[in-house]
Each structure stands twice: as C-alpha cells, then as structure tokens.
C-alpha cells in the first residue's frame, strides 16, 4: 500500500496537480502543489476552510459552500472552477477543484478528498497578455524614438557652432596660428563632423519606426535599380561591376523607400569592403524561397569578392554602431547593417550572411512575396 501511495504522489508531482482534504470539522490538509496554486509557500500553513475561502474571489464563496454541503449530504462529487482573489502571477489565476466524499475502513467520520489543478489559460487570456506586452513594447519604442529625435536635434546645433567658429578662426586669424594649432583645429573639426554624422545616423535609425506608409506590391528589380542609381557616383569612382541574375521576376510586399535603403546599404558595403587594388565585383541574384525552405518568400543574395568577415565578429555584425575596422581603413559609422536588419524585420523578413576572410561575403535577404499580377 505504501508503494502505491508513493507512486501516486510521484505522479501528482510530475503532473503539477495538488492533493487536498477537508474533514468533518472543516480542517484542511493539502500538499505543496496545492499550496503553490493557492499562492502559498510550501512551508505556509492552511488550517481551515475559512482560510481557504480567503484565497478565492468572494463572489464564488456561496456557490462553493453550497457544493460542499451537497457533497456531504448527497455524496455528490464536486468539480468547481475557482479564481484566486490575488493571483501570484498572470499565468495562474485560478484552479479546478475536484473531490468526493470518502470514509476510511473501520471509521465513521467522513471527509472530502480530491485534487487541485491549474486552469489552462484561455486563448483570450493569452491574446490579452500578448497585446498588453506588445503595447508596452510599442510605447517604449515610441519614447526611445522621441528621445533620439530630441537628443539628436539638440546635439547637432552646438556641434554646428563648434565647427563654424573653429573654421572661422582658421580663416580670420591664419597668422596667429602655427602649424600645430592648425592641425589641432583640423582634428577637432573632423571629430565634430564624425559626431554629427553619427547623430544623423542615429536619428535615421530611430525614424524607421515612424513610417506609417502601407505596404504595396513592389518589383525588386526596380528597387535594386533605384539603389544602384543612388550609388552611381561611388560606382564610377571605384569602377565597380554589378551584375544582376534574375531567376524569377520577384515581386514583394513592402515600402519602396525603406527597401531601397536596405539594398543600397548592402551594395555600398559590398563595394567598400573590397580587396586593395582590386576592382569590386558584386553579383545580385533573386531566388524563389520555396526552393530553399522559405515558402512564400523571395531570397535576394548580394555576393562580393571582398575582404570577408572574421568569424569572431559574426554574432555582433548587425549590432548598432558596430565597426570591425578603424576609420583610417574604412569610413562609416557602423550603423548601415543595423538599419538593414531593422528594415528587413519590419517587412516580416530576415537578413543573414555567409563569409570567409579573404574570399568575400554573401548577404541574404528574405522578403514576403506578392502576386505578380497585382503590379498590373
């Protein structure tokens, strides 16, 4: 018999279901699981029915007591859904109580014995909690974007004054400055210019969340053409060669301005991080995602033959202001890939890459496809 009781207790422990018992004098005995469901610690005591009732909502007291009386007089089993008066967490707000009248062999006293188990959350409760969490995130993002906008605006003005007066000093008092002073002023102006560029990039990143433009079907070939056209001066200067191979005519849902910026950032990086003295070669391809376990999406790849990315930096490449090289080697603020990642995620897509140091990199962007007929 003891082995059976031990097996039963183990089963209750595994399932998270608690055991409880109410005797003829309204004294309650329950195990640790039942106490947890009631918002108590295992070491806390729960002496009688009154203390039990204090744990549940007052509106249910009368109906629950009636059910207990009926169980004791007519031997009717109890199955009751009870809600905690002060839930310990959002996930456990109530429990199901079940019991029936029992009598030990050779004894006249009876008692109610049964189980307590947590009520499963309804889909409505889960949805409410998800909506609440989403609203909090949106509010936090809005506050952060507002702060970034205000801070960026307030910081740009003093930077403009610093550089203006320093350059004015260079122009108006050239004889009062020796070579060292002029060099120091040049360093200060360059630092202020870099700071202004960082602030503008931060403001641009913050403003990505403020676009309320509805998504529309877009031909990715047109988006890529606009991105290349925006980089025309850079392409002429570096003599970069960009080829586009079309597997299928890609049409995606999105915002043309943001998607153009995404691919412009990736193309600019493919040109910038090129091997010394080599002509940049960039190959762009469009693939149907259904062939690559990404059904319903189009996958764009941008492959270069540049310097590649060290494996030590693979996990942080898309972090904000993450730079892998010094400014003497490559210019930029280190925010371009962070912006690209954010735009891809805003479109329900994702961005990733493959790279081998010294042998180039390939960046991939997966975006939701649209019906090509919708462009007509």
TrEMBL record:
Gene3D superfamilies: 1.10.287.130, Histidine kinase-like ATPase, C-terminal domain. InterPro entries: HATPase_C_sf, HATPase_dom, His_kinase_dom, HisK_dim/P_dom, HisK_dim/P_sf, Sensor_kinase/Photoreceptor, Sig_transdc_His_kin-like_C. Keywords: ATP-binding, Kinase, Nucleotide-binding, Phosphoprotein, Transferase. Transmembrane segments: none annotated. This is histidine kinase. Its EC number is 2.7.13.3. One of its GO terms (molecular function) is ATP binding. It is an enzyme of class 2 (transferase).
